[in-house]
């Protein structure tokens, strides 16, 4: 009687880097994606960037090589999604996503595809106004914003007034809470947010 031979070559899993500033969430995602054949490997060219806490993804993408990342965020601010996408990540998923969708996103990115899946959002802001919103939400003063955008301070002040008006807010604190997805603390939701869809 002969015993069947076992395969000698190991099953090769696909590798990715995982960046998540919340250790418990990172461990859970890493373990769950293993079931889909994905192994965390720090030297992998493809990365999964979990935006937790909100704002981490912006920091990582600003440091360079954004096309190495598939970004996942639950921040509900549409202007924030646009800012993430402007950096040029391989993929962007916004809103709640199951682990199967994360595994599928890694497959798409590994195949060289650039994609995004975000809820529908028609921002009333221009690209310059959106940058003013981001810098203001990051705590920058008008002078620094003006230097970054090569504008004078009066133009920035007027631009931020337009941002406040277009979004229905009165001050920097309110727009910062909006940008970081914390507008529920304001006891109202901006009227500019719409339903979900694939873009």
UniProtKB/TrEMBL annotation:
Entry protein name: Transcriptional regulator, LuxR family
Residue ranges constituting the HTH luxR-type domain according to the UniProt record: 118-183
Gene Ontology molecular-function annotations: DNA binding
Biological-process GO terms, alphabetical: regulation of DNA-templated transcription
Keyword check for Transferase: no
CDD domains: LuxR_C_like
Highest classification ranks of the organism: Bacteria, Thermotogati, Deinococcota, Deinococci, Deinococcales
One Pfam family here: GerE
Keywords: DNA-binding
Organism: Deinococcus aerius
Protein origin, superkingdom: Bacteria
């Amino acid at each position: 009687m002969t015993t069947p031979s076992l395969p000698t070559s190991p099953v090769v899993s696909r590798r990715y880097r995982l960046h998540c500033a919340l250790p418990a969430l990172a461990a859970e995602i890493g373990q769950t994606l293993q079931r889909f054949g994905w192994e965390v490997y720090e030297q992998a060219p493809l990365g999964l960037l979990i935006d937790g806490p909100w704002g981490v993804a912006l920091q990582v993408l600003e440091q360079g090589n954004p096309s190495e990342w598939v970004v996942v965020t639950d921040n509900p601010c549409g202007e924030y999604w646009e800012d993430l996408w402007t950096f040029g990540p391989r993929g962007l998923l916004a809103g709640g996503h199951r682990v199967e969708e994360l595994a599928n996103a890694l497959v798409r990115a590994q195949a060289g595809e650039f994609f995004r899946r975000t809820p529908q959002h028609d921002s009333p802001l221009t690209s310059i106004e959106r940058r003013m919103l981001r810098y203001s939400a990051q705590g920058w003063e008008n002078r620094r914003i003006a230097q970054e955008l090569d504008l004078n301070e009066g133009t920035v002040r007027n631009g931020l007034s337009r941002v406040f008006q277009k979004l229905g807010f009165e001050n920097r604190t309110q727009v910062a809470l909006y940008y970081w997805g914390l507008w529920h603390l304001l006891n109202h939701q901006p009227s500019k947010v719409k339903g979900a869809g694939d873009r």
